């Protein structure tokens, strides 16, 4: 059981690394925002698996907050792009 | 038994998230990247939260886990829509192999106006009146 949890945690860390490459390289700002959104989703997953691993149910509240923050960040960046972002055409 | 179910769900969720990350790294343009990341990550988080609900099996925790699933399922499409819209308006380049861009003939990037393609002359008159006012 704990081995499988460890494996899934490492798979998610690998996913974080891949997303980070896109965040670093992403040619335009929308690409980076999409990568950031995926970042927060993966973080929610990691927090869920850690909650199972250490048997602390309170961590789910943290996951809720992270999901909320990710959504708010995306909306905020989208507004910024439409109103004041640098145009790329 | 329950332990293995939880472990399997966690592993499946992690694999789906890894697929989402792979898609976001390898796919060629903004819209295809979004299409990979939004759905696969939503499914991954849902599976993991299902596993959490099964592991703890208390009312409060199950309610929270399903709350997270509901929240992610409601917000992920909205966020993807808004980012896609903003990306298109900013002028994100589409992939070379894109066959069809149905928005292009209807959207004027300079005036930031969008027509439906069904405007009658009546609509045009109303438009001009609006401009005069």
UniProtKB/TrEMBL annotation, chain A:
Membrane association type: Multi-pass membrane protein
InterPro entries in UniProt: MrpF/PhaF-like
Localization in the cell: Cell membrane
Keyword Cytoplasm: no
Transmembrane residue ranges: 6-24, 36-56, 62-81
GO molecular function: sodium:proton antiporter activity
Assigned GO CC terms: plasma membrane
Entry keywords, A to Z: Antiport, Cell membrane, Ion transport, Membrane, Transmembrane, Transmembrane helix, Transport
PANTHER family documented for this protein: NA(+)/H(+) ANTIPORTER SUBUNIT F1 (PTHR34702), NA(+)_H(+) ANTIPORTER SUBUNIT F (PTHR34702:SF1)
Similarity comment: family membership: Belongs to the CPA3 antiporters (TC 2.A.63) subunit F family.
Name of the featured protein: pH regulation protein F
Organism: Halomonas eurihalina
From TrEMBL, chain B:
Region Disordered, annotated ranges: 109-133
Regions crossing the membrane: 6-28, 40-57, 63-83
Key words of the record: Membrane, Transmembrane, Transmembrane helix
GO molecular function, one term: sodium:proton antiporter activity
Protein name (record): Monovalent cation/H(+) antiporter subunit G
């Amino acid at each position: 059981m704990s081995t499988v949890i460890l494996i899934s945690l490492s798979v998610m860390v690998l996913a974080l690394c891949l997303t980070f490459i896109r965040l670093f390289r992403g040619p335009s700002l929308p690409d980076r925002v999409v990568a950031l959104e995926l970042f927060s989703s993966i973080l929610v997953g990691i927090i869920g698996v850690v909650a199972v691993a250490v048997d602390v149910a309170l961590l789910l509240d943290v996951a809720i907050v992270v999901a909320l923050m990710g959504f708010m960040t995306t909306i905020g960046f989208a507004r910024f792009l439409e109103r004041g972002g640098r145009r790329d055409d | 038994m329950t332990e293995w179910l939880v472990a399997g769900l966690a592993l499946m969720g992690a694999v789906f998230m890894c697929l989402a990350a792979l898609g976001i790294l390898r796919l060629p343009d903004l819209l295809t990247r979004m299409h990979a990341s939004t759905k696969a990550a939503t499914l991954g988080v849902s599976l993991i939260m299902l596993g959490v609900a099964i592991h703890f099996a208390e009312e409060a925790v199950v309610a929270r886990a399903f709350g997270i699933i509901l929240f992610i399922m409601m917000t992920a499409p909205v966020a993807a829509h808004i980012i896609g819209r903003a990306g298109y308006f900013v002028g994100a380049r589409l992939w070379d192999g894109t066959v069809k861009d149905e928005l292009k003939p209807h959207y004027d990037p300079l005036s930031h106006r969008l027509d439906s393609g069904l405007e009658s002359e009546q609509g045009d008159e109303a438009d001009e009146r609006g401009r005069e006012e």
